[in-house]
Amino acid sequence: MHNIEELLLDYLDGNLDKNKLAFVERYLANNPQMAEDLAGLKEIILVPNADIIYKNKEQLKKTKVFRLPLYTKYAAAAGGAILIGLFLWMSIDKNPLKENYVAKLAPKIETIKQSNTIESNTANITTAIKSSEKLNSKTVVKQSYRETDIAIKQITPKKYKKRIIEPGEEEQQIAFENKETVNQTPVIIKEDILATLQTIQLTEINTNSFWSTPVIINQSKMILITEPKSLRSRFEALIPNELAKVEARVKSTIKEVGSDNMKEKIKSAFQFNKLKEALVPSTVQETITSIQ
Amino acid sequence: MTVQEYNNSVDQYSDSVYRFVLKLTRSRTDADDLVQISFEKLWLRYESVDFTKVKSWLFTTSYRAFIDSKRRARIDYVEVMPDGIEKENSYQFELKEILNKALDMIPEIQKSCILLRDYEGYPYDEIGQILDLSEAQVKVYIFRARTKMKQILTENFNLS
Description:
Strand order of the largest sheet of chain A: 1-2
Strand content of chain B: under 5%
Helix content of chain B: over 70%
Number of helices of chain A: 15
Low-confidence stretches of chain B: 78-88
Distance between the termini of chain B: 49 Å
Distance between the termini of chain A: 96 Å
Number of helices of chain B: 7
Oligomer: heterodimer
CATH class of the largest domain in chain B: Mainly Alpha
Strand content of chain A: under 5%
Structural class of chain A: mainly alpha
Shape of chain B: globular
Number of strands of chain A: 2
């Protein structure tokens, strides 16, 4: 089925076969007005004006350029993406436990900082550790250790590293050393004492939190974190045998009472307030109070 | 297509593309822009365009660029006198003027069809490809365009 206008144009162009030509001629015979309109229509042809030219041809022309194949562009983009990803990966701490912990416990660490009571600190950390109950027990131990480790990092001044003592075994330094040279001026000593006291407080928190969770203690090696070794000698010089007594008491208590009753025993073993009073002059005490 | 063939296509087809879009836009500035856009697009993919089909490619691209620009800017094109028209004898000049006016009075799609047919000599099926129409539609549009132009010429010059 053809539109009559389409056929009429083909008629003007002379492109109709016999059947269609006969059809169109019959149509025109029956429509004289259309036949009249058609007359002269073939002459209505537009002629382009050759004077109209595009003047900026030279601007459109190009010289040969070296083009990299398309795949090289993709390869370069992929390489760049890999480098950026590698850079980001290296710049981010890769410990997922730590990230998880930081995200989970950041507000709690802040709470710990603001709190001076052993009970509240213990409760905070214990709650945090219990929140990881979905993991198996071994993982829980590791994560708990790391969480505590991070808690200490958050509060302890950076220049102090920590070492780890496993009660009931030979004391061994696992990973940390104090790499910075300790200044011997009195001011620095006061700072050291302050920092150490904070560390001891956290040690206590860590200890309580660990041993308040039976599942953990059954699986762990009863890790105990203590103050930096470099400061230990200073404490011992100021208060001979005090720290050794504390450690010895912890170890013996573990052996005596087992894990279930350790929490209360450890609390009494660490009498840090007394230690603090013995170590720090009254002027520094005020500073400590104001900082805390 | 090579770079040399690209440059050849500039020499061979830029004028006809320019005349085509100039009739559509009735603005030298807009026509210049459309020609430039069309050839820039061609340059970006000249390696994948067959030189034997580059003319149709250019008309297709320039027509789409015209439609896009018209939609985007809602350009109300105004008629301008193109450069290069020398005033011949008054009858011929007046006839061209009437033809131009008659051309501007027909719908845009009809104008595009008849321009490609008369200016460039394209067969109906290729015009359909360029303008994204069926061959039958192209024939109908051209027939209506010629009828309308004849009517205008008849009214102004008593042609019959």
